[in-house]
């Protein structure tokens, strides 16, 4: 047996087409969704991600407002821009690309974004909504992982899911979303001794630790679903995830590739969240 591929590019195309349809309906009512994307500094990877977000807006019909600032921008200046965008009724989502330059307190910036416009789902209030299952914005990467798992048609009810990683933006919200889908959830991390003891019991493994080859074939139960959130570069400079694809694919039932798995879904769920932000304002 070899695992079937969960194709994040294909699922993204499908979901973006649905977003485009709903966006067109809102736009026809004079309520075109708008997303403000703020990039501070000159990190080359961030510039690529931001460009891809603007492109995704173009293909879905969402209006993008790209604001680029030098790394020397002060925190006060950035907070003032966010305040202006919070008060702009044509802007439904605000996104500040991470990481920010070191002199800026990222959490302060995130908390300055209105909860109604926090389409990254990064704020403390959004985290609370994710934890309680209240309506709000789910962080895009774990939200995308849930859609990828859903696309396999496998139910999560009663299954054991192991999340490797405990970041506030991926690992922790991922565990909460799996829990809400009635999985039994274990969170492991870089400090977990003998990771395989846990992952070998898992029906679903989500690897989000940021270290290549964290999950190998001998650590995976036959038939498990494996979701790879990692974006790393190997010794040859090639993009790779946290999962050793070659050894895990023959054991798993479903697996996401890197690239082309979770990555594109992150941007797709940003489009979904922005559309929903605009739809919510329409409802008053
Ligand atoms: N404000 C935010 N900042 C950051 C986020 C975020 O969700 N919001 N996430 C990451 C970067 N990111 C989006 O911003 C992101 C990372 C990777 C991909 C992606 O499509 N990856 C491709 C491979 C791309 C490549 O070739 O390098 C893939 O995995 O197929 C999309 C978005 C940090 N900052």
From TrEMBL:
<keyword id="KW-0521">NADP</keyword>
<comment type="function">
    <text>Catalyzes the oxidation of 5,10-methylenetetrahydrofolate to 5,10-methenyltetrahydrofolate and then the hydrolysis of 5,10-methenyltetrahydrofolate to 10-formyltetrahydrofolate.</text>
</comment>
<feature type="binding site">
    <location>
        <position position="231"/>
    </location>
    <ligand>
        <name>NADP(+)</name>
    </ligand>
</feature>
<keyword id="KW-0560">Oxidoreductase</keyword>
<feature type="domain" description="Tetrahydrofolate dehydrogenase/cyclohydrolase NAD(P)-binding">
    <location>
        <begin position="139"/>
        <end position="281"/>
    </location>
</feature>
<feature type="binding site">
    <location>
        <begin position="165"/>
        <end position="167"/>
    </location>
    <ligand>
        <name>NADP(+)</name>
    </ligand>
</feature>
<dbReference type="InterPro" id="IPR020867">
    <property type="entry name" value="THF_DH/CycHdrlase_CS"/>
</dbReference>
<protein>
    <recommendedName>
        <fullName>Bifunctional protein FolD</fullName>
        <ecNumber>1.5.1.5</ecNumber>
        <ecNumber>3.5.4.9</ecNumber>
    </recommendedName>
</protein>
<dbReference type="GO" id="GO:0004488">
    <property type="term" value="F:methylenetetrahydrofolate dehydrogenase (NADP+) activity"/>
</dbReference>
<comment type="similarity">
    <text>Belongs to the tetrahydrofolate dehydrogenase/cyclohydrolase family.</text>
</comment>
<keyword id="KW-0378">Hydrolase</keyword>
<keyword id="KW-0658">Purine biosynthesis</keyword>
<dbReference type="InterPro" id="IPR020630">
    <property type="entry name" value="THF_DH/CycHdrlase_cat_dom"/>
</dbReference>
<dbReference type="Pfam" id="PF00763">
    <property type="entry name" value="THF_DHG_CYH"/>
</dbReference>
<dbReference type="InterPro" id="IPR036291">
    <property type="entry name" value="NAD(P)-bd_dom_sf"/>
</dbReference>
<dbReference type="Pfam" id="PF02882">
    <property type="entry name" value="THF_DHG_CYH_C"/>
</dbReference>
<keyword id="KW-0511">Multifunctional enzyme</keyword>
<dbReference type="GO" id="GO:0004477">
    <property type="term" value="F:methenyltetrahydrofolate cyclohydrolase activity"/>
</dbReference>
<keyword id="KW-0368">Histidine biosynthesis</keyword>
<keyword id="KW-0554">One-carbon metabolism</keyword>
<keyword id="KW-0028">Amino-acid biosynthesis</keyword>
<dbReference type="InterPro" id="IPR020631">
    <property type="entry name" value="THF_DH/CycHdrlase_NAD-bd_dom"/>
</dbReference>
<dbReference type="InterPro" id="IPR046346">
    <property type="entry name" value="Aminoacid_DH-like_N_sf"/>
</dbReference>
<feature type="domain" description="Tetrahydrofolate dehydrogenase/cyclohydrolase catalytic">
    <location>
        <begin position="6"/>
        <end position="120"/>
    </location>
</feature>
<comment type="pathway">
    <text>One-carbon metabolism; tetrahydrofolate interconversion.</text>
</comment>
<comment type="subunit">
    <text>Homodimer.</text>
</comment>
<dbReference type="InterPro" id="IPR000672">
    <property type="entry name" value="THF_DH/CycHdrlase"/>
</dbReference>
<keyword id="KW-0486">Methionine biosynthesis</keyword>
């Amino acid at each position: 047996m070899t695992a079937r591929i969960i194709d994040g590019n294909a699922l993204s195309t499908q979901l973006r087409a649905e977003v485009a349809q709903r966006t067109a309906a809102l736009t026809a009512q004079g309520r075109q969704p708008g997303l403000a994307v703020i990039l501070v500094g000159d990190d080359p990877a961030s510039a690529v991600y931001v460009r891809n977000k603007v492109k995704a807006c173009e293909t879905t019909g969402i209006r993008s407002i790209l604001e680029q600032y030098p790394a020397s921008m002060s925190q006060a200046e950035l907070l003032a821009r966010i305040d202006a965008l919070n008060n702009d009724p044509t802007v439904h989502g605000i996104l500040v690309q991470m990481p920010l330059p070191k002199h800026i307190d990222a959490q302060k910036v995130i908390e300055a974004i209105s909860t109604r416009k926090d389409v990254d789902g990064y704020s403390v209030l959004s985290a609370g909504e994710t934890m309680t299952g209240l309506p709000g914005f789910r962080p895009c990467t774990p939200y995308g992982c849930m859609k990828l798992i859903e696309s396999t048609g496998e139910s999560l009810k009663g299954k054991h899911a192991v999340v490797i990683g405990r970041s506030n933006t991926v690992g922790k919200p991922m565990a909460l979303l799996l829990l809400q889908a009635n999985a039994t959830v274990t969170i492991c991390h870089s400090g977990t001794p003998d990771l395989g003891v846990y992952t070998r019991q898992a029906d679903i493994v989500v690897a989000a630790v940021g270290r290549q080859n964290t999950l190998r074939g001998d650590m995976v139960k036959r038939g498990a679903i494996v979701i790879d959130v990692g974006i790393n570069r190997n010794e040859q400079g090639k993009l790779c995830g946290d999962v050793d694809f070659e050894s895990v694919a023959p054991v798993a039932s479903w697996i996401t590739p890197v690239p082309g798995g979770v990555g594109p879904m992150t941007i797709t769920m940003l489009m979904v969240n922005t559309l929903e932000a605009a739809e919510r304002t329409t409802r008053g």
